[in-house]
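Dear Dr. H.,

I hope your travels went smoothly. While you were away I took the liberty of generating a structure for the chain from your last submission, since the lab meeting agenda had it listed for discussion. I wanted you to have the full record in hand beforehand rather than looking at slides cold. The sequence, exactly as received, is reproduced here:
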Amino acid sequence: MFDKIDGKTAEELQKFLKFKENFAFVLRDILDKDGDLYCDGLPIFDEKGKYIAECEKWINVGYVIKGSFSKTLSNLYPYEFDFKGFQLKSLESFFQGLKFKNPEIQKLIFSYSGTDAYHIQAASDYNWKETGYVYWQGQAIKRDSVEYDLLVDEAYISLAQNPLYRQALKNVTKPLIHSMGKVSKEETLLTRYEFEKQINCLAAFLQQLG
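The corresponding predicted structure, in token form, is as follows:
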């Protein structure tokens, strides 16, 4: 799967995969107490029902959340990056592109960013949830597989070559959560657990690189 990745990115990917093997990650519980959600004992929503972006224990990542880290660390944020010979407008365009079988259509999806990429899934004539398979340039990949996980790792390391995204992660000083994330691999291409492990691990990896 390392084809079409430049030498520097491929080298950093190998280092990241080793780092990830030893990265200790525990998913923080989100608990419902009388209809209110809490993480590490602190509320997810404020008194007006709005997401809390940051508290003393965590940063809640989500594009709709009003917080600088919340938005800029979201997959929907419009960071441009090169991946396997393609230029993507956001990480969201990568994930949404996987839902399209046709390689040319997939390439077109890569030109979308943010919520535009998210909503373009309505134009797909293929439902990956029915088969459990996504597609990369015409190649079927099982969603729940090592091959898929590696493709996602490659995409994140490629995104990390964008200096703004890279520095944003290096500036993080608190654990990152994604309270709105789905929990089942059958429902989403990146579960809450997968996203939180990935982004916390990547932040720690980049910080130790200096």
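Two observations you may find useful: The chain has nine helices and nine strands. The longest helix spans residues 192-209.

With kind regards,
E. W.
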